[in-house]
Amino acid sequence: MSEAGMELKRTPLYDYYQRKGIKLSDFGSWALPIHYTSIIEEHKTVREKVGLFDVSHMGEIEVSGDRATSWLNRLITNDLTTIDKNQAIYTIVPNESGGILDDIIIFKYDDTRYLLTPNASNTQKILDWITQYQEEGITITDRSQEIGLIAVQGPYAKEVVAKVFGEEVKDIPNYAFITADAHPTYTNALISRTGYTGEDGYEVYVQRDQTEELWEAFMEAGEAYGIQPCGLGARDTLRLEAGMPLYGQDLSEDVTPLEAGLRFAVKWDKDEPFIGQEALEKQKETGVDYLSRGFELVDKGIAREGYPVVNADGEEIGQVTSGTRSPSLNKSIGFMRVQKESVSLGDTVWIQVRKKTLAAKITKKNWLKQIKKEG
What we know:
It is an enzyme of class 2 (transferase). It is built from 9 helices and 19 strands. The chain is an alpha+beta fold and about 375 residues long. Among the domains are: about 140 residues, 2-Layer Sandwich (Gyrase A, domain 2); about 90 residues, Elongation Factor Tu (Ef-tu), domain 3 (Beta Barrel). A 6-stranded mixed beta sheet has the order 10-11-12-9-3-13, sandwiched between helices. Helix 2 packs across helix 7 and helix 5 crosses helix 6. The longest helix is centred in the middle third of the chain and has 11 residues. About 45% of the residues are buried.
């Protein structure tokens, strides 16, 4: 039960967790493990070997129809015409004012059929949002309750996934996928070369009632490579080192893609303008007031979400949106949303951490490059 007394949502692995005696926590109204052993151990396993994540709380919405491409293109910032069959694309779903309703990945089966993967907390919101724009000939189907999702991440991910699905998975390019049509067990599986850790890896969408069997198959296949189940705590530290934003902290409806550093996912010259494009074009012309920046603490401590950021005069200029101690670099890092005119790369700012004011250096979010270089 959650603190509010509400029944937590369960992934297909819930019974598995109960049998194994794995501690579950309330993660956005879902019962999920934050860690199995320790966050640091699981984090390092993914960086050095291979880790397994239950991410079945993510949403899956299928969109189909003869005009699916042009219809969807008006609801997202990126451009579906730039990818081919069996490719995927990262994009923003904006509101009318350009704010971020969600950041999602869209998988393209072909020009008439797509799979959208909203964040768990946003699944219903995105379903409601796109449904209000539904047109004749467009079919929208929520598959979230039918599908389990397992992420296999780390340097040995391809060996583990290949043991279960065959050598062809090693040839899947980044942000592309195949479907396991000929597999004797997981015939409806979608295997994508995607992830949220910064490491090479795969995300495998499978029928809900096959999720536990697939989890066990991956665990057996990865035994020789030191595979370890990993919780959402390590997933968070891994994505932060990789400079990847988290919805609900770094991204929200009050933040635009231009403020969030996601301009690469905005295409301005599509055949038809997308919802919110006019607002974003105005912001592009006038400039943004706030930007998302990386930081590293100079002083000892950890700066968490919501901590105020001040300048040398003690004036508040922003706040921390994500923060942790990097297990790979052994220093405190994070993202902050700050006034654009107040800081530049290399500047020192101060973060109010409880009763202390800690110095921090403004940096790029390229910690993973440092990690790989040092490794």
